[in-house]
Automatic annotation (TrEMBL):
Residues 1-28 form the signal peptide. Keywords: Electron transport, Heme, Iron, Metal-binding, Signal, Transport. Transmembrane segments: none annotated. It comes from Azospirillum griseum. One of its GO terms (molecular function) is iron ion binding. Binds 1 heme group per subunit. Heme c binds at C146, C149, H150. GO terms for cellular component: periplasmic space. This is Cytochrome c. GO terms for biological process: electron transport chain. Coiled coil: none annotated.
Length: 158
């Protein structure tokens, strides 16, 4: 390869890297927008839990509704905690209720987040069986994983 071709390829590669690097910075999400995304994720989780609860309480929800609710819970539980709780999205950013302690005690917070996944899997399995009592127990266990994190890392609602 002659020097002109090598130089042209090097220049093109460098340009691509610079565009990708600066483009990534320009596209960085606003922390307040990240808080809104987290809130939407939590609403999805809460909606799923609510659908299961309606079935358990025999308040009009069907087993199929409960299964879809459990799918939503499991989908959230499988998310990476760092994606849901990015640094810089604590209380004071947008409408965040996440305490700074969440990031100060990240390993504990992440452990609590990860505990939700096996609980959600058990919930989904219980729904397949159709026994409201078993589903209720699994729902309670799943809810407990959520509550443990809220207790330690979320500002209490007034």
């Amino acid at each position: 390869m002659n020097n002109r071709v090598v130089n042209a390829l090097a220049a093109a590669s460098l340009s691509a890297l610079l565009v990708a690097g600066f483009g990534g910075m320009a596209g960085a999400a606003d922390p307040a927008d990240m808080v809104k995304e987290r809130q939407q994720t939590m609403k999805k989780l809460g909606g799923g839990m609510g659908a299961v609860a309606k079935f358990v309480k025999n308040e009009g929800g069907t087993q199929e509704d409960a299964a879809k609710g459990a799918e939503a819970v499991l989908a959230v539980a499988k998310m990476d905690a760092k994606a849901v709780f990015p640094t810089g999205t604590a209380v004071g950013v947008g409408d965040s209720a996440a305490k700074p302690e969440l990031w100060q005690n990240w390993s504990a917070a992440e452990e609590k987040w990860k505990a939700m996944q096996p609980a959600a899997m058990k919930l989904a399995e219980a729904i397949k069986g159709g026994d409201r009592a078993q589903i209720g127990q699994a729902l309670g266990a799943t809810s407990k994983t959520c509550g443990g994190c809220h207790e330690d890392f979320r500002v209490k609602k007034q």
